[in-house]
Sequence to fold (224 residues):
Amino acid sequence: MSSGAHPGGEEGADSGDSESDGSEDGEITEPRPRRRKGHRAGRACTRALIRQAKWDGTYDPNRKHEVTSKVGTGEAALINVGLQLEHTQAMISTKLAGHNDDSLASLCAKLNRDLSSWRQEQLVAFPDLSNELSVVDASTPEKALLLLPSSLKPEKRVALRLDGLAVIEYKLREGQAHDALAELQLAIKTCNANLKFKKKYVHGQKPNTRAQQYLRILKAEKKV
Fold:
């Protein structure tokens, strides 16, 4: 056995696990730990969460603010949730424009919770967005920027490494458009069929009133 061999018979068994400053006189120095990949991005995500907590008034310096993620959340699922949030924002904006405040408070509260959860997932999947996301104002969640790929210019998407995600969003939106068109066609057919039925079979004031109310509901569904 040579004098330079390790007890286990393998030379350099511990080499490569850490960086160390060796000295020529044989003095053993403390190894320097390697910097983990994504460490800088993780800190940026944490700063984004702290900014949001301070804005909401929920910041606690004694509590650890960190990004958590649900296991198994894929990119398509993440974008799909973002599209649902976008739909809810549009719904709230429509209700506000029409001064229809029925259940509006609970809808806004739910949107705030969903946005908070989705933001964390977004930061885990795409840490480059940490400096792009603004805080969510709890009083106007319908105005919060979702930063879906379609809302960004092509060069910005490339810089943030979201260009591949834009393809996923396009396919999901295409599916939504087909579903919406099918629902509209069904609503039109139902409305027209009931209109023909009313003209042919419904007579008298009370039946006509009930039929008119039902037709108004169907016409409202067509507009949606």
Summary: Residues 173-223 form one domain. The chain has a mean pLDDT of 72. The two ends are 84 Å apart (CA to CA). The chain has two domains: 39-147, 173-223.
